Amino acid sequence: MVTAILRVMGLNQERQFQNYHRVLNRAKWSSRALSCVLLRLLILFFVSEDAPLVVGIDETIERRRGAKIAAKGIYRDPVRSSKEFFVKTSGLRWISMMLLTPIPWAQRVWALPFFTVLAPSERCNQQHRRRHKKLTDWGRQMIRQLRRWLPEHELVVVADSTYAVLELLACAARMIQPVTIVTRLRLDTALYDPAPVRQPGTNGRPRLKGARQPTLAQRLVDPAHHLAACHRGLVWRDDTHRRTGE
């Protein structure tokens, strides 16, 4: 990307143009530190002081082949696949965190990437005898890193249904400065109350969950369920008139 920008600027005819490749290839530099610097610059130019920081997290596939691409795997191609047609592709899976900010001249919200992590395939981790991390594990670490970078900022993370996992949501809620996560749930998702407090002298394994709550589909039909959900802290957007199942 750096050399492509220099070509657009007409600097590809410089005598020492190859040095720009060596800066990224041979020099010692930290991509995580660079991500922090880039994030602070984006906040300085696009986010007001009293506004919450809204970021998106999503994964993308970089199509790569070859014997020297060690972390490649076989994944579903989200561009060429559909509900009826499944297309696989070989490449690298990256998880990207992006600042969601409105651009005045574009009249829409843009996603500006500032933090990207490589998520190797399970086969690659097995070959290198490493513990495999799921997408939600990487996402949880990225959210914790974002909170360490901005300890006093109000953070809102927007993600798809892949990140609607209890471990990740609980981790974000239990931070000293909690992080709000906006994700998608199916209308038939099973929701439960917290596990009741274990009484002294009780036999058997401790309960992991409480009573079953009404599904989101039931809450949309019955206003009483909607009011009870608000008291529990469960809030969702009523845009399910299309009945798409999510």
From TrEMBL:
InterPro entries: IS701-like_DDE_dom, RNaseH-like_sf. It holds the Pfam family DDE_5. Residues 4-242 form the Transposase IS701-like DDE domain. It comes from the Bacteria. This is Transposase IS701-like DDE domain-containing protein. It comes from Dictyobacter formicarum.
